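Input sequence (375 aa), recorded before submission:
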Amino acid sequence: MSNSHAITCKAVVCWGLGEPLKVEEIQVEPPKSTEVRVKMLYASVCHTDILCSEGFPAPLYPRVLGHEGVGVVESVGDEVKEVKEGDIVIPTYVGECKECENCTSRISNLCLKYPIALNGLMLDGTSRMSVRGQKLYHIFSCSTWSEYMVIDANYVVRVHPSIDLSHASFLSCGFTTGYGAAWKEAKVEKGSSVAVLGLGTVGLGAVDGARMQGAAKIIGIDKNPWKKEKGEVFGMTDFINPDDEPNKSISELLKGITHGMGVDYCFECTGVPSLLSEALETTKVGKGKVIVIGVGVDTMVPLNVITLACGGRTLKGTTFGGIKIKSDLPILLDKCKNKELKLHQLLTHHVKLEEIDKAIQLLKQPDCVKVLITI
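Predicted structure, token format:
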């Protein structure tokens, strides 16, 4: 049952565009009927958190950052059935009602009943967080850079306690998004060829997903030479560093190792606007498919329509890699439990919640993949 008292705890608050992040004492209200309050154990840093601090997808301030994490359910609302106090859970930002048009289809994971919360509030349009009496917004469905948070129970997934909890956090967004993009969104075929633009957590997830699907050739593209070794750990067969041949485009370099044909699938994980058309050029004429995963502050990007239309290629966006949180995510959690996913290879740095500035700086280092926050 719900604990009727508000909790005072520490959280990372972004007060506005360009303002430094601050660890503040905030108040977290008890959960309402369909919600749970979670005591966070670990969180991790995703580039989307940085984008949100810069006003993506809307300038909502003050807000508590963080959307990847794992924690223990502290209290539950009266109508919550699927989780209970003491359960270990990870938050997600898409729900699955199993009843709406999208949930009952094999086409989309974007639940219409429990959609992505772009307004930074709970489903009823209010917030459970405040600082000195002022309402706090969160990121999508939750805010994980806090000692406690409230989230609708339809956005959490129970985690088996035998799973390494420091790794479970990575399944909340980044790695799952990339893995799912290859598995559920593109449905990469066995023996096919794949290119992945950007070898961060999302890109490495796409590499691993393509490997699990049986892709014969998996080409990673990144300007950071350190990423070559990481990519190979997850199944990458070839590596291209565009800086090695600056006079050639990425598509030219890629076609140079695919007999001029290009690849069957390309996953754009960088969010760099100019690379969208380049991603299309890397794929085969008449059958190439590009999955857009990365996003940036710029919502309008240039696109070569000739390459798309006259080339007979497919351009598709994805959210959470097409993963449905009740139907598909437990499969990944089982893989994690059985040590089939090399999530430990993603973890490069640890920080405490109070060291959030250090975490942001670490994210800019060339040897950084994932920063884990111990709460």
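Checked by second reader. The CA atoms of residues 269 and 293 lie 5 Å apart.
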